[in-house]
Please model this.
Amino acid sequence: MNRRLLAAVGAVALVLGATAGIKVIRAGTPADGKHYGHVFVIMMENTGYRSLIGNPNAPWINRAVATYGVATSYYGVAHPSQPNYIAATSGLTGDHSNADQTLDVPNIVDQLESRGKTWKAYMQSYALCGGNASATVCGNELYVRKHNPFISYANVQRDPTRVAKIVDLHELEADLARGEVADYNWISPDQCHNMHGRGPASDACSSSHASKLIAAGDAFLGSWVGKIMASRAWQGNPVIFITWDESDVSTTGSGGFPDTRGCCGASPGGGHVLTVVISRSNHTARRSPVAYNHYALLRTIQDGWQLGCLGATCDTVNVPVMNDLVGK
Model:
């Protein structure tokens, strides 16, 4: 654990104190957000805002932008991928790498279970790991651990009951059909459907085939969002958050991420990305120019269920709730 992570964990400890890792909103303080029915978070990959808006390879996304809620000033928290997944589930960033890590820190799972909320994490192509929950990659890099934040938390790794809640994406269809959907649902598409890609140029979903990857990701979103909205889970006050972990890799051949813009206490950040919010209670086209990031997304979920805060989400001055997109 490096000094940056130690400092972050130390800061969290000071805030959380004796509340078993979770700072609860003080009694009598109402949550600003809605009390959600089901929450779905879909995390896509490595695509900047401008690469999607108006892109003919992303027809479903652009229809969604014209139909639902859009955060026009939303940013990744860091580069590379994994810190953004950790940020969206614990308010921290880990060691700012894609290496396998074990973080002994409180996280969204702790908060959900402490309030009697259920959760499930759906990882596309996870079944290719053959039951090895800690595998780094599976299926010729279709599944990658760095896009599965839950297995990085020590108190998930050590608890078989919690590990069992990390499943292959194909189980979501059955859960939707049975009407047995958790309160909180995380969805990570695999490398051929999250716009990231893999392998050499000869691979059908090579990271060098940006247009094809965007088209595949767009089709993925249209299909799965359609299934969710057609199911019994889309009753009451559900919400779907669709976001991208970070902005594009450089297309100049120099590598790296040229966009390091950020907000909300994360500087440098992970660049400007698109975030679409589909809320059944506010089913209208709307735009928010407010600066948000993955910390704000986590805080919005926490606020709607009055879960308390974690890490950066305790910074209520810099990390706002996305009320203008989820409804008040």
User: Anything to note?
Assistant: The first strand starts at residue 39 and ends at 44. Residues 3-322 form a domain with the Alkaline Phosphatase, subunit A fold (CATH 3.40.720.10). The chain has one domain: 3-322. The chain has eleven helices and ten strands.
